C-alpha cells in the first residue's frame, strides 16, 4: 500500500504562489498515475492535474497555465506549483496515487475506487 502525505498549504493573497508537496512511502509502484485534487466547502472533489510514471501531464482548464505538476522520483515526491492564485482556489488539496500504465482523465469514481489518498492540506487565498 502506498501512503501519501501532503504539505505546503497555507494562506496567501490573491496573485500569490504556493508549492504543495506529496511525499510517498510504502510500496513502490512501477507504473502509476499521480494526481492533485481539491475540494472546496460544499463542493465535489475535483481533479486538477495528473502525471504518470513516464512524466506525461494533464491539466484541467481552470488551472492550465497557472499550476504545474512535477515529480522527483529519487525523493518519491510529487509537487504542485501554484501561481497567480485566486480566491476561488481556496480548498483542501489532496494528492492521490493509483497503479496504472497511464493517466486517463479525472474520473472521480475511478480514483475513489482505486486510488490511495493523502489527508489533505488547506489552501486559503484572500482577495
The dominant shape is globular
Order of helices and strands: EEEEEEEEEHEE
Mean pLDDT: 95
- What fraction, in percent, of the residue positions are helical? under 10%
Number of strands: 11
Category from helices, strands and their pairing: mainly beta
- Strand fraction equals over 45%
Low-confidence stretches: none
Report on the structure:
This protein has 1 helix and 11 strands; from the N terminus they run βββββββββαββ. β4 (32-39) and β5 form a beta hairpin. It is 6% helix and 52% strand.
What's the structural blueprint in terms of helices and strands?
Elements: E1 2-7, E2 10-13, E3 18-26, E4 32-39, E5 46-52, E6 57-59, E7 67-72, E8 77-82, E9 91-99, H1 108-114, E10 116-117, E11 121-126
Parallel strand pairs: 2-11
Antiparallel strand pairs: 1-3, 3-8, 4-5, 4-9, 5-6, 7-8, 9-10, 9-11
Quick take:
With 127 residues, this protein is mainly β.
